[in-house]
Amino acid sequence: MEEIAVLFHIGPLGITTTVVMTWAIMLLLLLVSVIATLNLREDEPGMVQTMLESVVGAIETSVADMMPQRPDLLVPFVGTLWIFLVVANLVGIIPELHSPTGDLSLTSALAILVFLSVHWYGMRSDGVRQYLKHYLSPSPVMLPFHLISEFSRTLALAVRLFGNIASLEMAVLLVLIVAGFLVPVPLLALHVIEALVQAYIFGTLALVYIAGGIQSQQITKEKDEQRSEKNQ
User: Fold this and answer.
1) Is the dihedral of CA 6, 8, 10, 15 positive or negative?
2) pTM above threshold 0.70
3) Does the keyword Metal-binding apply (predicted)?
């Protein structure tokens, strides 16, 4: 794997190409969002507005299929994550640029963000106490296993995205060196498909984890209510 270059330092902190590329993508998405939403029309939407509404509609449908109770709660986070990952994964097809998701530090940061979001949405849905109770369900003996599951799936989330994007860029580079400039043309289409698939998988897994955290506490709450009814 190619070493990540440090471009400059802010005190003891080294700013790598991954950091610069990540912030550049975030700035680009912010500018595009602001410009694209300046002249929205309800009666006669233009081509750009129609395309944006199609993208947002597809995201809302995907989230609603997974979390029909509260899709509006998860659409902003999951939708932003999907869009960012699509752009970040596709950056690698531009000559002299590399996908920031080919760096384990970025994929780890995204996985940690998903990890924190699972607990944030879970606690926000029905309170801290009710959320934490599901770690003791069906028995307090399951607590260590729940904790191991939380950390292992976060690690797997980071490594999966990093491994697929980094290996794809490495394969394109090796074929380019061995076979010349014409052979990698079909690999360009493969890169686009793989970038879209990996973004979808990462976002879907994040959605599954968050929805699972919310639904787990709802199940725990229902069980507590059933027990209290039996005791009465």
Assistant:
1) negative
2) yes
3) no
Give 175-187 pLDDT, tens digit per residue: 666 665 555 566 6
DSSP state of 37: T
Does any domain span residue 1? no
User: How many domains are contained in the chain?
Assistant: 1
User: Distance between CA atoms of 126 and 106, rounded to whole angstroms?
Assistant: 31
Print the domain residue range for 94: 6-231
Question: Residue 208 falls within a domain, yes or no?
Answer: yes
Distances (CA, A) of 86 to 83, 133, 140, 213: 5, 36, 40, 25
Identify any residues that bridge with 13 across adjacent strands, giving them in sequence order: 10
